[in-house]
Amino acid sequence: MRWVRFQVGGNIKYGIEEDGEITPVTGSPFGDYQVETEKFSTDQVTLLAPCEPSKILCVGLNYRDHAAEMKLDLPEQPVIFMKPSTAVIGPGADIVYPGISKRVDYEAELAVVVGREARDVPEVEAGRYILGYTCGNDVTARDLQPADGQWTISKSFDTFCPLGPVIETDCKADSLEIRLLLNGEEKQHSNTGQMVFSPQYLVSYLSRVMTLHPGDVILTGTPSGVGPVAPGDRVVVEIEEIGRLVNVVARHSATGK
Ligand code: MG
Fold first, then answer.
1. CB-based contacts of 172: which residues, under 8 Å, 6+ apart?
2. Ligand 1: distance of its center to the CA of 237 in Å?
3. Distance (Å) from CA 163 to ligand 1 centroid
4. CA 86 – CA 81 distance, rounded (Å)
5. Where do the structural domains in the chain lie, given as residue ranges?
6. In this structure, which of 108, 164, 193, 226 has its CB flanked by the most CB atoms within 10 Å?
């Protein structure tokens, strides 16, 4: 099943997408829902980020090829940081290049969407707490990372967490092709089979620290090939069986950030 969140005529709803057609629901994938009778084509609506996370948890180094590229040892436990919910944007929305940064990078990532409240979940049961998977981009103001001493500032600007377009509930995340295209040119290409820590491990590990709410997102780390974007660039995160998350980089306005 492919869940979307969308706006039409001033209303925001969840819906089920199939072959370019959206069936809206009353309710949400995180609780009870009823299918409505009206249908829309995807070009009649504005797709939004497919969930509204209370928090976005991110893994710092989780692909074997990326660790090799950076000449870093594989971590024995996940390195975790967070992005704020205010960073989330949907497919088609602009990534705003901050005025105070001179180096902003893309990072294509598989995003895990938590389906129900998770606390102290054993790894073997973690799959039941995952609603599905979507595409994510862990946009990073790379030049602000060293001065900050940790990652909050560089990762947290408004618009720095594109998510979407759909939550695919039926795919297995252990062997999906993942790509990043910058203005049509392939910059990252790997497979989620390169991950050090699986989505199930991450749900279990994190749920022992903090309660995961329905709609919370775990960004599972980026493969090799990270690099810079510039205003005007078209950035596509493409993951097999899920789809393509497309965003354009916009220059910040004089009055904005
Ligand atoms: Mg990342």
1. none
2. 13
3. 13
4. 15
5. 1-48, 50-251
6. 164
d(C-alpha 111, C-alpha 252), whole Å: 26
> Other CB atoms closer than 10 Å to residue 238's CB: what's the count?
19
Q: Is the dihedral of CA 66, 98, 154, 192 positive or negative?
A: negative
24 CA distance to ligand 1 centroid (A)? 32
Contact 235, 180 (CB under 8 A): yes
Q: What is the pLDDT of residues 170-183, one digit of tens each?
A: 999 999 999 999 99
Question: Quick check: 135 and 74 in contact, CB under 8 A?
Answer: no
Q: pLDDT at position 191, please?
A: 97
Question: What is 50-251's CATH number?
Answer: 3.90.850.10
Question: CATH assignment of 1-48?
Answer: 2.30.30.370
Please tell me the distance from the alpha carbon of residue 196 to that of residue 113, in angstroms, as a whole number: 19
